[in-house]
Amino acid sequence: MPDTEVKGIDDMLAYVGDFSRYQLILICLFSVINVLSAFHYFGQTFTSLVPEYLCNTTEYNQRNVIALECSIKLWENDTVYVEERCTTGWTYNNSNTHGYTSLTQELNWVCSDDWKPVLGQSVFFLGSVIGGIVLGVLADNVGRLHVLVIANMLAFCGNAATTLSSNATTFALSRFLAGCATDTNFVMMYIIVMEYLRPSMITFGLNICIGVFYSISCMSVPWVAVWVGNWKTLLIIVSGAHLIVLLFYLIVPESAQWLISKGRTEEAIVCFQRIARINGRTIKPKAIESLRQYSLENINCKHQQENFFGLLKTPNLRRKTIILIYKSMVLTLCYDAISKNINSTGMSPFIVFTISSATILPACLFILAVQDKVGRKALASGSLVVVVQLAEIFLDLQGYFPGLLMISGAVACLFLPETLNQVLPVTLQDGEAFGEHEKTWQFALCGGGNSESTTILHRNANDH
C-alpha cells in the first residue's frame, strides 16, 4: 500500500500502526478493565453469601432444645416436643467462609428475610438490562469513551451506596444502580481496543487479556474478601478502584469509526495523529486529506438515521437479532446459576469459586487455538452442549431446566451465519444479506467459511 493511499479508516490505522506501542498500551488498559469487571460482577456473590447457621439457643436449657435453621425443637419429655419459630437470633458457622462476614450474616437476612439478598441480586440484573439498553443508545450519541467512563462511575456509585444499605429498599436501589454498569463497563473498552487492533491479532490479544487477567481476578475475589474480612470493606475497595477509569480520558482514544460517522472527521484525525506519534510514525498531509475525502464521500444522512429498531425491520436480520438476544440471555442465566451455586457442594464456597474461575484461562486458550479453525458458529453451539454434559456429571443445577436452556441455545446458534473469514456487515443492508443463503449445518470446519475472503471486521488482511 503506498504511503499516502488512504481509502478508509482501516487503511489509516495500518498507516499509523495497528500493532505497536499504542496498541500494547490499550491492551494493558483493557486488562485493567477485566480486573475491575471481575470484582464488580462477582463482588456481589460474596456480599450476599449465606454461611451455615442455626437458631441461637443460649436462652434455653440446652438439654431440652434442638436448634434448626429457622426454628427450635423444645422437648417436653422423651417423646413429645414443640417446634417454635426462631426469635432469638442466629449463630453462624464461619469455618467454611474463613472468618469472612457477609451482609446476609451482619443483617440476619435469613429464614423469613432470605428474600432480601435475592431481591438485590434480581434487581442487579434488571439494572444490567436497562443499563445496557440506555447506555448503548447513549454510546451512539455521545461516544464510546464517554459511556465507558459513565458505566464505571455507575459501578463506583452503586457499590459505594451498597455499603450504606441497612434495609431491603436501599439495598435493592443500590444494587440496581450497580447493575446498570454491568457489561457496558467492559464492552465499550472491548469495542475501542478491537477497532484499533490489527485484525490478525484481535483473537489473540483480547482472549489473552480475558484469559489471564479476568481469570486471575475472579480467582482473587474470594481471597480478597477473606483478607479484608467483611463485605463493606470489600465493596469499598471494589468501588474505589473504578475511579482509575477517569484517567482513561488522558490515554484512550474515542472510536474513530464513530467520530467519522458523526461527521467529526477532524477529531478522528487527532486520534490517528496521537497513535502515530506514540508508535513513532508520521502522517503525511496527503494521507490526512485522503481520509477527509473518504469521510465526505461516505457519510450520509441514511447511515445517521440507522438505529436498533432497524435490526427488526427485515426478516433475515430480525431472525439473527432475536437469536443473539436469546443466546445472550441463556448464557447469562446459566453462567450466573453456576457461579451462584457455590454453597451447594458441601465444600468451602471460596475454594469452589476459585476452582471454577481457574477454568477461564484454559477455556480462553482453547478458543484461541480452535476459533479460527472451526469457526464461531460450531464453537458457540458445541460449547453449550458440552456445558450441559459437564453440568450433569459434576454439578446439580436444581433440575434439568438450565440444561434444557443450554441445549436450546446451542440449537439456536446453528441458525446464525458463520463469521470466520467473512467480510462483516457495516450497514443494515449488509446485515440483511449476510449469511442469507447459508445452511443451518454449514460450518467453517466443513468448508462453510469463504477462504478467499480474509477480511475481518471489514478490513483486508493483505493490506498489512
UniProtKB/TrEMBL annotation:
<keyword id="KW-0472">Membrane</keyword>
<dbReference type="Pfam" id="PF07690">
    <property type="entry name" value="MFS_1"/>
</dbReference>
<protein>
    <recommendedName>
        <fullName>Major facilitator superfamily (MFS) profile domain-containing protein</fullName>
    </recommendedName>
</protein>
<feature type="transmembrane region" description="Helical">
    <location>
        <begin position="234"/>
        <end position="252"/>
    </location>
</feature>
<feature type="transmembrane region" description="Helical">
    <location>
        <begin position="350"/>
        <end position="370"/>
    </location>
</feature>
<dbReference type="GO" id="GO:0022857">
    <property type="term" value="F:transmembrane transporter activity"/>
</dbReference>
<keyword id="KW-1133">Transmembrane helix</keyword>
<feature type="transmembrane region" description="Helical">
    <location>
        <begin position="176"/>
        <end position="197"/>
    </location>
</feature>
<feature type="transmembrane region" description="Helical">
    <location>
        <begin position="377"/>
        <end position="394"/>
    </location>
</feature>
<dbReference type="InterPro" id="IPR036259">
    <property type="entry name" value="MFS_trans_sf"/>
</dbReference>
<dbReference type="GO" id="GO:0016020">
    <property type="term" value="C:membrane"/>
</dbReference>
<keyword id="KW-0812">Transmembrane</keyword>
<feature type="transmembrane region" description="Helical">
    <location>
        <begin position="321"/>
        <end position="338"/>
    </location>
</feature>
<feature type="transmembrane region" description="Helical">
    <location>
        <begin position="145"/>
        <end position="164"/>
    </location>
</feature>
<feature type="transmembrane region" description="Helical">
    <location>
        <begin position="118"/>
        <end position="138"/>
    </location>
</feature>
<feature type="transmembrane region" description="Helical">
    <location>
        <begin position="204"/>
        <end position="228"/>
    </location>
</feature>
<feature type="transmembrane region" description="Helical">
    <location>
        <begin position="22"/>
        <end position="42"/>
    </location>
</feature>
<dbReference type="InterPro" id="IPR011701">
    <property type="entry name" value="MFS"/>
</dbReference>
